[in-house]
């Protein structure tokens, strides 16, 4: 279409076409009306200008936001790694403390169970009545034990355990709050990743595969400048197309004006042109041209008039295509600007999500994180203090158990010792009886011999020659001497009588030994032997 092209004119018409009849005024008016209607495309051109301006602004804003996001993101990973490292250390402190505490409790329970078992054995072991004063109520070995030390030790250990449990509960609560903080950060990170993924997908689609796939999670700005450039090119082309429409409209006005009776029609049609229409000739305002419609027309030859009409007729068929092209281009621009704004919004969403994560991290690091760390250190301090107390209590429990277990062994040993002493007593009494018998025989023999001597020789010996001549032989008596304390032992209630009692028989005065049943002695021997064998197995 020549009138809508940059030339704005056509070459000489063929002779047969020049011979055609000049179109009627109505036909030219119809072309003028159609040309005027096509000028409404200026609204698309203005919209194109607005889109280009908005696109440039959007690109600038996105570049700034992207730079800010990149700055925040550079420090974000390091802060997250540091945060999760702190959480792992705090959790490790809790797990280590809990494990060590459970181990200490297990050791305490085992030691306490052994002690309770030993105390139970003391309660079950009744002291044989022969050891105690006559008429006394039966007593167990436990009656000779003062359990106040055990009770005090239990109270001390309970206080330590309660304090550790309280510190552990506070640390667990602190860690739960810490985990709540991490959940909030994870939620913000989820929003951040979703926004980043969306922006990356849009950027990838817009760049038609030109974006590097090395890190698809990060959006790219590479497609946006090309999109802005395409909008600018569309706007420039639309402006050129609008100029061709204006030129076509201008020729239609001239043709109508040069047609008889067309001046008034031209003035009527051009009276309400779309605002801002700029003519293609020298940049003059068409409205200004129309305002001068009453000015004298420049002379126009018949050939030139026919040539102008011919151009109008040819271009009229193409004007609609130009309008459609402008409409298509503005549609394409609307789609591009929509995509561009969507990418900008994605970058803004990423920036907002990044700020949200950064805000969580900053708030946590500056206010609550020191408290979580301090809580872990506090638990460690309490555990270290009470751990020493628990270890000391564990040693004391073991010592008490060893003491009471030794008491049981000593009682069994006492039974065996009594049996041994009774055995020795029996041997002593046997020797005494045998010696008494032999001494009595010797005494009788001596008496008889003295009497025989006296009868045979007494009449011949003066009575005063030896005063002992008529005396009986000496007699030997055995005395039971009560034993004093062993060497190195201080006697608490010594016998003040100091009298020595003559021995008459086994049941006479002297050391009183308990009379223990044989089965009691055998049981004591069996228990001691069993313990010795158990110790031997443990050592081997």
- Strand and helix order: HHHHHHHHEEH
The multimeric state of the shown protein is single chain
Low-pLDDT stretches are 5-20, 207-217, 278-294, 495-508
The shape, in one word, is: rod-shaped
What portion of residues belong to β-strands? under 5%
Task: Tell how many strands the DSSP assignment holds.
Answer: 2
Query: Separation of termini?
Result: 116 Å
How many helices?
A: 9
Give a description of the structure.
It is a single chain. With about 550 residues, the protein is mainly alpha-helical. The protein has helices spanning about 15-20, 25-40, 40-125, 150-205, 225-255, 265-270, 285-290, 300-455, 520-540; strands spanning about 480, 500. A two-stranded antiparallel sheet has the order 1-2. The two termini are about 115 Å apart.
Write the layout of secondary structure elements.
Elements: H1 15-18, H2 25-38, H3 42-124, H4 148-206, H5 223-257, H6 263-269, H7 286-291, H8 302-457, E1 479-480, E2 501-502, H9 518-539
Antiparallel strand pairs: 1-2
Helix pairs in contact: 2-5, 2-8, 3-4, 3-5, 3-8, 4-8, 5-6, 5-8, 8-9
């Amino acid at each position: 279409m020549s009138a809508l092209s940059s030339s704005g004119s056509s070459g000489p018409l063929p002779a047969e076409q020049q011979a055609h009849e000049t179109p009627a005024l109505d036909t030219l008016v119809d072309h003028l009306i159609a040309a005027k209607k096509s000028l409404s495309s200026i609204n698309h051109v203005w919209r194109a200008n607005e889109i280009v301006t908005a696109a440039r602004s959007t690109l600038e804003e996105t570049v700034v936001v992207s730079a800010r996001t990149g700055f925040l993101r550079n420090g974000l990973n390091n802060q997250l790694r540091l945060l999760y490292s702190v959480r792992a250390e705090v959790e490790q402190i809790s797990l280590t403390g809990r494990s060590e505490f459970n181990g200490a409790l297990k050791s305490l329970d085992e030691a306490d169970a052994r002690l309770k078992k030993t105390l139970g054995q003391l309660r079950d072991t009744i002291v044989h009545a022969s050891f105690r004063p006559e008429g006394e109520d039966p007593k167990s070995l436990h009656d000779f034990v003062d359990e106040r030390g055990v009770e005090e030790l239990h109270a001390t250990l309970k206080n330590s355990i309660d304090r550790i449990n309280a510190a552990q509960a506070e640390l667990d609560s602190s860690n739960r709050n810490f985990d709540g903080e991490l959940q909030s950060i994870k939620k913000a990170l989820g929003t951040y990743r979703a926004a980043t993924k969306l922006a990356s997908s849009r950027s990838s689609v817009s760049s038609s595969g030109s974006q590097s796939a090395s890190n698809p999670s990060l959006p790219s700005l590479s497609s946006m400048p090309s999109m802005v450039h395409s909008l600018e090119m569309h706007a420039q082309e639309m402006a050129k197309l609008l100029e061709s429409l204006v030129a076509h409209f201008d020729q239609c006005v001239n043709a109508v004006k040069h047609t008889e009776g067309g001046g008034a029609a031209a003035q009527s049609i051009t009276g309400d042109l779309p605002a801002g229409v700029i003519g293609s000739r020298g940049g003059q305002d068409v409205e200004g041209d129309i305002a001068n419609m009453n000015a004298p027309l420049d002379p126009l030859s018949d050939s030139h008039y026919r040539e102008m009409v011919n151009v109008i007729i040819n271009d009229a068929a193409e004007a609609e295509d130009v309008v459609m092209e402008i409409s298509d281009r503005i549609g394409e621009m609307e789609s591009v600007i929509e995509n561009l704004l969507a990418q900008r919004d994605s970058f803004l969403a990423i920036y907002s999500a990044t700020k949200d994560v950064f805000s969580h991290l900053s708030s946590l690091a500056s206010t609550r994180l020191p408290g979580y760390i301090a809580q872990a250190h506090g638990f460690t301090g309490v555990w270290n203090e009470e751990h020493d107390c628990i270890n000391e209590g564990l040693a004391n429990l073991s010592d008490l158990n060893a003491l009471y277990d030794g008491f049981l062994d000593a009682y069994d040993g006492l039974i065996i010792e009594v049996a041994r002493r009774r055995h020795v007593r029996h041997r002593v009494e046997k020797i005494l009886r045998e010696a008494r018998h032999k001494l009595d025989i010797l005494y009788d023999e001596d008496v008889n011999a003295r009497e025989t001597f006296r009868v045979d020789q007494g009449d011949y010996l003066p009575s005063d020659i030896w005063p002992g001549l008529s005396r009986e032989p000496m007699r030997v008596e055995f005395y039971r001497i009560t034993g004093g304390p062993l060497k190195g032992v201080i006697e608490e209630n010594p016998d003040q009588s100091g009298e020595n009692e003559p021995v008459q028989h086994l049941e006479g005065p002297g050391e009183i030994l308990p009379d223990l049943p044989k089965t009691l002695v055998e049981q004591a021997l069996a228990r001691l032997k069993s313990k010795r064998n158990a110790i031997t197995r443990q050592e081997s």
